[in-house]
Amino acid sequence: MDQAVLVTSARFLVDELNREGLAVTSAAWVRDEESETSWRLWLALANADVDLHDAYMRVATIVGRDFGRLGGLEPGRVKLVRSDHPVMLGIRKFQQIRDFTGKNLRNNLFGEHYVFDVVPVFVEPEPVAS
Q1: How far are the Cα atoms of 38, 40, 53 from residue 57, in angstroms, in the given order?
Q2: Which residues make beta-bridge pairs with 113?
Q3: Element (H, E) at 11
Q4: CA distance 114 to 8
Q5: Of the four, 30, 68, 89, 97, which is 20 to 30 A from 112 by CA?
Q6: Mean pLDDT of the chain
C-alpha cells in the first residue's frame, strides 16, 4: 500500500465531506486482519444522528466525481462510524501524545476492538478550554 497516496486521498475526501456539511472528526485507514486487501477508510462523523444512507450517498457522489484525485478509492472501502467509536477515540489519544499521521500503529486493542494495523489520516484538534 502506498501510504502517501492513501493519506492524501483520504484527506481530500474528508475535506470534501466537510465542505458539503458532513462533519468528519477523524479518519484512519484500518486493517482488521493481515490481508493486504482488508484496508478500509474509517471516517468518524461528528453528528451521531446523521442519516447513514445519505452520508454513504455523499461519499459515493464525491468518489464518482473525483475518482482520479482519490487515488482510485472505491466507496465500498469507506466505513462511517461514530466519533465515540473505541478505535477513533484511541487514535485521538495517540495523536495527543505525538503526531502519528501517516504512520502505522500495529497490533492495537482499542477498548474491546482489536485492529491489526491503523494509519491515522486526520484528527480534528480538541477545542481549547478557556
Answers
A1: 22, 17, 6
A2: 110
A3: helix 3-19
A4: 25
A5: 97
A6: 86
Cα-based torsion angle of the residue sequence 37, 38, 41, 42 in order, rounded to the nearest 10 degrees: 180
Amino acid making up residue 95: Q
Which cell numbers in the block locate residue 127?
477545542
- The type of residue at 32 is D
For residues 66 and 80, is the Cβ–Cβ distance under 8 A?
A: no
What are 45's three cell numbers? 462523523
Asked if residues 103 and 29 have their Cβ atoms less than 8 Å apart, the reply is: no
- Grid coordinates of 64: 464518482
- The span from the CA of 92 to the CA of 97, in Å, is 9
pLDDT band at 95 (very low <50, low <70, confident <90, very high): confident
Q: Is the pLDDT of residue 1 over 70?
A: no
pLDDT digits (tens, 9 = 90+) for 19-70: 999 999 999 999 877 666 678 999 999 998 999 999 999 999 999 999 888 8
- Are the beta carbons of 43 and 80 closer than 8 angstroms? yes
In this structure, are residues 118 and 7 in contact, taking their beta carbons and an 8 Å threshold? no
